[in-house]
Design goal:
Largest interface: A-B, 122 and 122 residues
CATH superfamily of the largest domain in chain A: Bira Bifunctional Protein, Domain 2
CATH class of the largest domain in chain A: Alpha Beta
Strand order of the largest sheet of chain A: 6-9-10-22-21-20-17-11
Strand content of chain A: 25-35%
CATH architecture of the largest domain in chain A: 2-Layer Sandwich
Structural class of chain A: alpha+beta
Helix content of chain A: 25-40%
Number of strands of chain A: 23
Mean pLDDT of chain A: 95
Number of domains of chain A: 3
Oligomer: homodimer
Chain lengths: ~575, ~575
């Protein structure tokens, strides 16, 4: 290669050497007859100097030109000790312009203010910005670390197909029309779940893969149509074996990527405790702020709102600050988004109680509240009376909002926990039946094994989620590996024999031939990268993401195609 | 985990230890009151023994049952030194049947005779066979090695989208209808070509990825609808830099995966020499057998077939064996498949010339042929008179057939070469125009840069293919990074301004903002794994491949889908 060094490589040790560098012009500064150019590549920045004695002139060199220079390493007069190359500069003796650049639509630097669609439209320029490049260097390092970890632990990386079969349950499938099989469609995988279970039945013992998955759902800040998953499965392993394997991986990642050592085991919290204390199955433990049930406090209340408690709970959260009217309006809005219309509140300030509830409290209730929340300073209490789960969910969302509102979250704080003992089923209002909460291949808990298919509401699963800072990083379960239990599970979610056979017959058949018990897990790597990079959207850690309409503003995909293409695929648009 | 060891782990060193193993029953042998069971997992086989004194009986244990046993490691009487566990056996004291197995549709062993569709239908059982597992262990090791190599050489692994835009040129795209954008379609990538070039323009310097690609072409023994590619690109690098990087990778692979050291540089052969000597641009160099042009020998011939040489060449190959009538018919059939109707031949045996041409040769022609081919034993000469390229192609195919027919190929022989100096264009009879031979982003050679868009026939490309044993492993090129040259290239293949803008405008625009020169390469990993595993089809190294109709006989994908699914995607079948 023509360059002798990268732009991040030269130091005072290279003094007087003749070097050739190639890179982008980051900055041009004229100082009398002198011109200074910052030359940039992904490794760093090196200062070039063109002075009066230079035969080579830097005229017309502009930012983002790609140039090649040869010159001598000399000591800088005004040194910059912030960067590794800051003690030297290159006295240029030869200059070649490799490619010129027009004025870029936004400046190539950190902290730009361009709209996201502009950044996506010129993504190749957005990716030129150092803070973006750092995200992808982190992602590269993360991937190498993950694979090393699994290889060393005797997991085999095996690829699963992208072209699969559409199956019911789960999210909406993406479909690919088949040209060779008229009228038929492949489905893109939502996860390689059944394939990895077949690997266990094949005897591969331990499998992992970093793999693209696809869900045709509406997009959110932390969701894309295609996403990347770390997928793993272990034979002769139960939930604890998998949790231990994943926990050690995450500790390894935190140490090697972030330099943070986790010595303690991650907390394991029951699903029911998570809902009870935090209102959500992915609690953000970077701040306390627990939700409490106050049914007892208001057992004999005269407050009209709290009087009718049939099938309802009074749930509450307390912050040690007097919230403003604007804060309360914002939180009420969040309650409404979570199907709760009334967010009642009480303010406690200098022994005075005010607010929609505060003014109506009995002395006994006041004492109970002070005791319950250990109140000893100005505080605001928020109350919801509703179905226990609805009230919890709304207060969970309010709690997360309060974390930001009250600046309770420290930067670079990472709080992991396992949530365990999940319900096996959840009721689908849309489908008007119970559906599998995780997926229908999840093993019921030992306590539920006898009656999971009659007592849907109390059935628990051998399932676990790993949560980081209020985000679900991923989850997994021990799988069913027994045909009888599998059939009971399918029937429980409303499949008849015919539907089992048509959709999963090919899979359930595999259990006939000697299946080891096995468990596994999957982690969302886009989300993990987002959290490790301290960015606010997964789009910051995906090279060419789609916007919230599923469109890539750079290529304009998806796009119209030729009618002849559709003809060949035996389809037409409606 | 409950097991204390795997089935490949115990040896004489573990004598008397109490161990727990889990695995599949590979074999059951009764010997009087004794029962011996071979217990199998992916790591190996351990012999279990149940004798009269065992409290635990092995009754009803059948092949492919999954069992867990506890017992004591004892020394075997009749040792098997072929396997690492062959000196010991386990005297079983406890037995748990984890899962039973029905009789499998084929035996779980190497060298089975089941039809491929049966193997694919029960792929989870096929993958249980040790020879299949070895293929995937090799593939796992290969992947780790490749990523380690590129990481160490400062390449960044970055993911490119699966949902892209359909573009002309190249193979047929797979399409994915968009639900969110009515009537529009994503296209699955045939390769991440343009994305990786944008990474170079973004300044990522060096990129690699092991990535799934998609081509909707008819299937062959070494082609699948989805395939896996090692993709790489380097900035400030020319063809030689890339060839060196890939060559070192392949040498590293051969040493670490196959234990074969390559000290010499791989041969670099001009495309024109490959065609001239071997009739093909991916010659199998495991055997000699060169094709020769005999126009001079037959300059004044009286043989009717060779008389009319207008625009034709007489091309020939000579083997030191008398081919049978059956051999010749087989080879004639190959000639016909390659658009050549007459395969003429001459046999030389004991100074006698026979055959369709042999009997008509003049003494001078005989002497010339003996001299040309250095004939000194019984030989058969095959002749084709036709357009130079057509004759070459047919004899290239015949040469490959002769390699097998005459058993000229040694096992575990690996002959790599680079083919360079490819034509920039090839004529498409179907499209009735010149198309890019590699792709339209390939840099013309220095000699062709001035007139490549007028002298299509002689224009050469800065492109290179890496060939192993007659298979094209992959290829690459230096890319165009100059808008003017790129526009000339597009116009040369018949694109007007409008078509450039609609299809590639988003990409060509990126050249405006400072593009470094760059070069890259892609290798087909399915094919490489096939060759390294000494298997005859890429389906042997893909976990769940499609058959030649694009169908997975296990899941029955592609399949019919619900009308409501198509409705949501705004399409219908025709």
């Amino acid at each position: 290669m023509k360059r002798t060094h990268t732009c991040g490589e030269l130091s005072i040790k290279n003094l007087n050497e003749k070097v050739t560098l190639q890179g982008w012009v980051a900055k041009v500064r004229k100082l009398g007859a002198m011109t200074f150019i910052d030359l940039r590549d992904i490794y760093g920045i090196t200062q070039l100097v063109f002075d009066e004695s230079n035969v080579i002139k830097s005229t017309n060199i502009k930012p983002e030109f790609v140039i090649e220079i040869t010159g001598q390493v000399i000591e800088r007069k005004s040194k910059n000790f912030d960067i590794s190359t800051g003690e030297i500069e290159i006295k240029v003796t030869n200059l070649i312009v490799i490619n010129e650049s027009e004025l870029t639509p936004f400046e190539i630097k950190n902290d730009i203010e361009a709209q996201e669609d502009t950044r996506l439209r010129y993504r190749y320029l957005d990716l030129r910005r150092p803070e973006m490049q750092e995200n992808f260097i982190l992602r590269h390092n993360l991937y190498q670390l993950i694979r090393k970890y699994f290889s060393e632990n005797k997991f085999f990386e095996i690829e699963t197909p992208i072209f699969g079969k559409s199956t019911p349950e789960g999210a909406r499938d993406f479909l690919v029309p088949s040209r060779l099989n008229k009228g038929k469609f492949y489905a893109l995988p939502q996860s390689p779940q059944l394939y990895k279970q077949l690997f266990m039945i094949s005897g591969f013992d331990r499998y992992f893969q970093i793999v693209k998955c696809f869900r045709d759902e509406d997009l959110r800040i932390d969701r894309q149509l295609e996403f990347t998953q770390l997928d793993m499965e272990m034979s002769f392993a139960d939930s604890n074996d998998v949790m231990e394997t994943i926990e050690n991986l995450l500790k390894n990642i935190m140490l090697n990527i972030k330099g943070i050592e986790f010595k303690e085991n991650f907390i394991k919290m029951d699903y029911s405790e998570a809902i009870d204390k935090y209102g959500i199955d992915k609690p953000d433990l970077r701040f306390e702020l627990e939700i409490k049930t106050l049914d007892k406090v208001f057992e004999t209340t005269s407050i009209p709102l709290f009087k009718d408690k049939s099938n309802k709970s009074i749930r509450s959260i307390c912050v040690n600050k007097i919230l403003t009217k604007k804060d309360l309006e914002h939180l009420t809005e969040i309650a409404k988004q979570n199907s709760v219309n009334i967010l009642a509140f009480a303010k406690y300030d200098n022994n005075e109680w005010t607010g929609s509830i505060g003014s109506k409290l009995s002395e006994e209730e006041k004492a109970s509240l002070i005791n319950e929340f250990k109140i000893n300073e100005s505080s605001t209490l928020l109350f919801i009376i509703d179905d226990y789960y609805i009230a919890s969910k709304a207060l969970g969302a309010i709690r997360n909002a309060l974390g930001n509102l009250l600046s309770l979250i420290k930067k670079d704080d990472y709080k992991f926990l396992w949530v365990v003992n999940f319900p096996l089923f959840e009721y689908s209002d849309e489908e008007e039946r119970y559906v599998a909460a995780h997926h229908p291949f999840t093993m019921p808990s030992d306590e539920s094994i006898d009656n999971f298919d009659t007592d849907f509401k109390n059935a628990k699963a051998k399932a676990y989620d790993i949560v980081l800072n209020g985000f679900e990083l991923g989850g997994g379960s021990q799988r069913i590996t027994n045909r009888e239990i599998q059939n009971r599970m399918f029937k429980a979610i409303g499949f008849d024999e015919e539907k089992i056979k048509t959709n999963f017959g090919w899979f359930v058949d595999a259990y006939k031939y000697g299946a080891p018990y096995h468990s596994g897990c999957a982690l969302g790597l886009d989300r993990l990268c987002m959290l490790l990079s301290n960015t606010s959207s997964i789009r910051e850690v995906i090279a060419f993401p789609k916007n919230s309409s599923g469109i890539d503003p750079m290529t304009n995909a998806p796009d119209n195609v030729k009618l002849t293409q559709l003809d060949e695929l035996h389809i037409k648009t409606k």
